[in-house]
Fold this protein.
Amino acid sequence: MSTSDQMDRVVNLCKRRGLVFPSSEIYGGFRSTWDYGPLGVELKRNVKDAWWRAMVQLRDDVVGLDAAILMAPKVWEASGHLATFTDPLVDCRSCKERFRADHLPKSGACPNCGAKDSFTEARHFNLMFKTFVGPVEDDAAVAYLRPETAQGIFVNFANVQTTSRKKPPFGVAQIGKSFRNEITPGNFIFRTREFEQMEMEYFVPPEDADRWYEYWCQERLRWHLDLGIPESKLRLRPHDTEELSHYSTGTSDVEYEFPWGWGELEGIANRTDFDLKQHAQSSGQELTFFDQEHDRRYVPYVIEPALGADRATLAFLLAAYEEEDVPNGKGGTEKRTVLHLDPRLAPIKVAVLPLSRNERLTPVAEEIAGSLRSQFMIDVDTSGSIGRRYRRQDEVGTPYCVTVDFDTLDDQAVTVRDRDSMTQERIPVEGLVTYLRERLPW
Ligand code: ATP
């Protein structure tokens, strides 16, 4: 399967199985916006939960925050976003298509019509969405939709530090929507104008910043590998000096090999003391930490791992997608599509399948599903042949199928089928929760 085919097939699967739909579809869609359907919302929630668990729950040095999307416009002035959060925009004079100048091919040819050297001079275009707060649409009412969640953390530095009584090194994590008026959104949910970010600002003594930057680069790489992204598809790419943001002395991208090439999945940046200093100066509030032990006051440096929830979801989907030949039970083979998602990310953990719609089997299947529901996300599927139902669960990544058959009525046992190996095991109903718990950690 070619890589572009793989992308088409994943997009198609997402639509067909209720993972991701084009937004406003009954009106013909709306400019690269997407809606997560019943299975997609579970998958993305699991991605966010896995991040929160690793970054907050399992650590004693990181706490959470949920700041407002609309913030005082002064925030964006102080952070530098009003002046510098821009992308260079060019138009092709021949076909009128717009591009980001820094995304053009080296050949100088228009990616749309092929015309050579047809681009206008680059103009700088601010990516922040502007809106008005209150009924009067004048300059005093202008506000911006946040283009990153990080600033909500910086302006709350003192609030969080004093109430949580954390001392550097400590971090504040946040998951939430961000908005960027991207010039060229595309590649499905890779680049959209509205997206979710998972960001953590880790405040450290300035002299320890380099060490913590290295630590977080390795730690974040490990997170992606642990959740099933193969090592061959992942790399850490340090930025060149000219590529660095205005606030950063060091940034590395965790890149994934997407079907169209290597692309940023996550950025890890040493943001220095830039943001806290800017906000202190602009607000007149002190944003420092007093280190009692060494009797000194300082502005902490900040190491930031920033990951897009939607981009991560796409990478997990692409890495998990496989079409394989499997025995068809008649001596030949047949194709099956399977998502080898890590069980922690799978939208449905267990499918309960009565062998047929028999009136004696259905209540038993319902009872088993009921006993599992409080522990796992369950699906009960009763329609079609058992083989077809297995295939349906395989292609949305359900790790285990529990089949209730006529023997169940006598032996109080069920058949548990494993998604990846397709092996089946007979398990007493009594021990089913324990069996599944051992294989589905959370
Ligand atoms: P790019 O170079 O792709 O525009 P960026 O370097 O501007 O990305 P950051 O500001 O570092 O991105 O944002 C952190 C993370 O947020 C990115 O690594 C990505 O996962 C996610 N992200 C950023 N912009 C978008 C977008 N338009 N759509 C979806 N996810 C995004």
Observations:
- The pocket of adenosine-5'-triphosphate is lined by residues 148, 180, 182, 191-192, 195, 197, 264-267, 306-308, 310-311 (CB under 6 Å).
- The longest helix spans residues 38-57.
- The mean pLDDT is 96.
